Model the fold of this input.
Amino acid sequence: MKKLMNDPRQIVAQMLSGMSHALPFLSFDRQHNVIYRRDMEEKVGLVSGGGAGHEPAHAGYVGRGMLDAAVAGNVFASPGPDAILEGIRKADAGKGVLLIIKNYSGDVMNFQMAAELAQMEGREVESVVVKDDVAVPDSTYSTGRRGIAGTVLVHKIAGAKAESGASLDQVKAVAEKCISGVRTMGMAMTPCILPGMQEVGFTLGKDEMEIGMGIHGEPGVHRQKIVPAADVAQILLDKILADLDYAGSEVAVLVNGLGGTPLMELYVMWDEVYRILGDRDIRIHRGWVGNYMTSLEMAGCSITLLKLDEELKLLLDRPSMTAAFPVA
Amino acid sequence: MKKLMNDPRQIVAQMLSGMSHALPFLSFDRQHNVIYRRDMEEKVGLVSGGGAGHEPAHAGYVGRGMLDAAVAGNVFASPGPDAILEGIRKADAGKGVLLIIKNYSGDVMNFQMAAELAQMEGREVESVVVKDDVAVPDSTYSTGRRGIAGTVLVHKIAGAKAESGASLDQVKAVAEKCISGVRTMGMAMTPCILPGMQEVGFTLGKDEMEIGMGIHGEPGVHRQKIVPAADVAQILLDKILADLDYAGSEVAVLVNGLGGTPLMELYVMWDEVYRILGDRDIRIHRGWVGNYMTSLEMAGCSITLLKLDEELKLLLDRPSMTAAFPVA
Done:
């Protein structure tokens, strides 16, 4: 299929090389496909990562106020424990390291193995697992709910806390609080194609969408005919709001594109989300619209709601200096 | 075709409504499809705009340090003079207004008509026309070169100058300097589909790309088989470097996605651009990679080079606070 690439086996490394050349605050460890901060501070280190193909996740979230290192596997494949261990080493400034893991079996296994290897080196390592996707209870690659776009808000919250000089336990605690209040639900309209493959991973009918599809094309809840954006927003939010009581809360909202959806359509979705939440007396403290956790060129979107308290609001509003999530 | 939308006739208005709800520093004039700053300052006002479908252009560039108002027409259709006049009124703080126009016949005609209407109201209005696309000398919708992604850098440079308290003449002069040193060349791999249409505007063979295609799908230079990213970058840069002598210069670089290209591929392109410019002794002062001037869900990219002097470097590095071009 049509891709701007050279050797598909080198696409991840070359992408990361490009990022590090474009962003002067990033360094790139080519041997392990780790992107890390050039100006690491003396604070709790934050590491995330996973299979590539979800750009800007996770390297786009490395920088002041968010992650210290991101470890990329091949496209849709978990990085190995040795690469993750290297990410931990890069992020360890002597105050301990927190791993933020999306809930996929491969990632959980490899990140935990890396944590044990790092502990054997005398490093202090803790981890949290993000399971924000309310679509399905278990999935092709996960036991329990999948971790998707809500992970970006966990990066932001934990990053701001670490930046404030908090201890590893405190950073972990606020990440857990964020995880307990974040929910995401998505939908897809077109498949994606892995670099080097000639065929799509699945097909969808010409007028079909899949509700709850995963960011690797894993099966969702059901397929149906495409409906207007107002109804899509209602379907996604109904599922989220049935899962956690947000009434009377303040929330952060992320309307996330899966890679191939024009920004125009994402802003239309935002307009619907804004209307529906207003009707439900849920107040939006802050929101983001764009491509944050993608699936190559898949068309579709997800909606994330994060329930906020005063601490989370303050942390969300702290400045961050990253490629894909700058907060001024 | 598959779109996240409601009524295609209302998609532009609803997108702009969504933007204004998502971004607290933006106001929306629903009658004229104008997005403008809520906190207009006493300085030269900057207005841009054009047909919708190129998001985040131009509303995503409204904010401190860039534009004061953006006027959107229907998808790929110029806004009318009355709407542009309203944008001028919103941006006019008594210090004069500069219009930044992409070179398409409809835009040039309507913006100039609006400028005359504004002058009849006693307003001071000047305009500049961006013609950065080196692909073709004339095009379907333009006499002379088309204005494309380089326009974003003109917004940034002129915006920073206006923010510094410069006069209308000074802001216009620096915009002209920027225009004289900015060149862009693009390519496309897939067509886009206008909201409400059932068919694509053109077709490209399964393994074909079009070099120099316009952001409305207008014909480019030639079609050929897809080649590796290294060769695509070479083809695009060769055309730019043959047009203006950048040897020994410092430049700003924009690797722009047309909407449907994964960020992964844009960073691969950046890596190639970085390599080629290094070989030519052209130093990158600052760069951006992402979707800045799109064509709905078209897959493809463009490369923009802006020749810098000390003044332009300073202006480029000044902070800006907009949805799509934040500089900290």
